[in-house]
Amino acid sequence: MGINALLERSRTLATPGLRAAVDRLAPPMDTVAAYHFGWIDATGRPSAADGGKSVRPALALVSAEAAGATPETGIPGAVAVELVHNFSLLHDDLMDGDEQRRHRDTVWKVHGPAQAILVGDALFALANEILLELGTPEAGRATRRLTSATRKLIDGQAQDISFEHRERVTVAECLEMEGNKTGALLACATSIGAVLGGADDRTADALESYGYHLGLAFQAIDDLLGVWGDPEATGKQAWSDLRQRKKSLPVVSALSARGPAAEQLAELMAADVKKSQQEFEDFDEEEFAARAALIEEAGGREWTAAEARRQHSTAIKALRGVEMPEVVRGQLIALADFVVVRQR
């Protein structure tokens, strides 16, 4: 099964569960969530908007197969992980001031900040409810992994925000933040299906290690797209991470380098910290383009691409300790390869 077929399978199997979960929400939260998932437009009419890549649900379904279970066994885990992921997106868009996601206005922009907060909270609650309703020991184990991953995700978002107001962040601090913010939930996605399928902790932990390092590779690519991504592909503004003063891997690695470009970048970013958000938002495109050029000249772009490849390799190595059908191993490798070559 190719990567497109894997992702399409995850959408086919997980979407009914997602829709059923959203249907539990009280109005208008159900409508707001449906808009966020791309099922309706801002006026409430049915829509076929981009609902995301479905990488996390795909990983949950394949992880169930890695444990010798059917992919359907992993559906509650796939739904729960996707609900938590979208809880984080709703809140992140508001905190970051992002007005566009997947080529559409974000929820807070259309429905207001209060609804973005409430619907995000509701999705998180639904995720745990869906797992616990299974009433099995495996469901309890899966819920513990999901709640632990969610706490780490929130820790990572708090770290990310705090970095925006600091002149300097180390590469180690950045990797820790990204391991929390992205790695933890992908780690959960790649173990939750296996846990629901009856896998022991050794197998689940090995799959989780694969997912954690895959998450770091995923975020490294996301960081590259956040600076140099094509807005037509990403659905976000050009230089989106620079506009938000993100201390992402390209920025942090460039600042840790030596040479005139790193020094000039450090001077600019030190001055940026002292500017108000409004002053910063008033920058023209050339200001952000200049910063991106300095990051690249200082080696930040090349270092981040190499780090994505390194984390991808580490993820694949983690699979060596897991006995599974070779076709399933091939699917996990294909999903890892997809993460490091994507353009959005």
Percentage of residues in DSSP E strands: under 5%
Estimated radius of gyration: 20 Å
Largest sheet: 2 strands, antiparallel
Helix content: over 70%
Shape: globular
Organism: Streptomyces gossypii
Protein name: Polyprenyl synthetase family protein
Family: Belongs to the FPP/GGPP synthase family.
Pfam family, one: polyprenyl_synt
Short account of what is shown:
It comes from Streptomyces gossypii. This protein is mostly helical and 344 residues long.
Architecture overview:
By secondary structure, the protein is an all-alpha fold. It has a single domain, classed as Farnesyl Diphosphate Synthase (Orthogonal Bundle). Helix content is 73%, strand content 1%. It contains 17 helices and two strands. The chain has a two-stranded antiparallel sheet. The two termini are 22 Å apart. The mean pLDDT is 93. Belongs to the FPP/GGPP synthase family. This is Polyprenyl synthetase family protein. Pfam families: polyprenyl_synt. Keywords: Magnesium, Metal-binding, Transferase.
Jot down its keywords.
73% helix; two-stranded antiparallel ribbon; 344 residues; mainly alpha
